[in-house]
Design brief:
It is built from ten helices and five strands. It has 225 residues and is α/β, with parallel strands linked by helices. α1 crosses α3, α3 packs antiparallel against α4 and α4 crosses α5. The longest helix has 19 residues. Bound molecules: cobalamin. Cobalamin (B12) binds next to α5, β3 and β4.
Length: 225
Amino acid sequence: MTVHSADRALEAYLKALFDTDKPTALRIVQNALDGGMTPEKVVFDIIIPGMERMVGGMISDNLVTLSQHFLAAQIAEEVVDRLIPLFASVPKIRGHVVIGTSHGDFHGLGKKIVIGCLRASMFEITDLGINVNPERFVDEAVAAGAEVIAISSMMVHTATGEFGAKQVRRILKSRGLEGRLRIIVGGAPYRFHDNLFREVGADAWADSAAEAPAVVARLVREVRS
Ligand code: B12
């Protein structure tokens, strides 16, 4: 299949995401490149709008299932990683985020989707995986020169407990790192209590992966200002 325009490619790509048909989605990307579309155009006119439409708009009407959501994020991550080195001028990375799921929490799907959105928005990501202890969040963020620590918690006790964001905040404070690093949290427990992110010592939270890039961009600006 030869794809002649970004619009047509985007429509075909969205259909493949809806069908959770990863081989077809990747083939559409490859066909676009083979047809002469630049890697920049593929990322900015197909992958990012595809991701936004799947993760942002339609999910609120419950039209998108978790597997469709997940696939859009997974492909965005793979394709963006592969194509960025091929850009004519390498895009400026907007900031560095160290992300993981809080200690005791093995729910990794929300985090994966957040990573897809952040990578597609040109943030550099260090993924620490699931069940990450607080010291490791801080150590890895310092080693990477990150501006933001992102903590995903899907369970109430891992969001509010003593081995999650609260302890990360204490470590930042005790090591004098609060001016250099911001904490963003996310996950279902934060939806039910507007102020919970503050109570656990975070600087910000985002309700969905689609909202995360704008919030992270603000935190990076704060650190750099
Ligand atoms: C899938 C799932 C599992 C899978 C996880 C698979 C995996 N690889 O992730 C498995 C089967 C392993 C599992 C295990 C357990 N689970 Co479970 N699980 C779920 C389930 C059904 C979906 C969670 C999920 O992945 N949602 C999909 C994501 C995409 O949704 P999301 O929250 O909307 O994510 C978005 C935002 O929150 C945000 N976001 C997420 N993280 C972050 C981070 C940042 C920084 C930002 C900015 C944004 C952000 O962006 C995401 C994308 O838009 C929920 C129920 C539910 N419907 O939520 C229960 C649920 C979370 N599980 C629960 C429980 C209790 C468990 C177990 C303890 C069960 C048991 N007895 O063994 C174990 C715990 C294991 C452990 N230690 O973690 C409870 C938690 C209850 C509570 N109030 O704390 C829930 C709510 C089910 C329930 N109703 O009881 N689970």
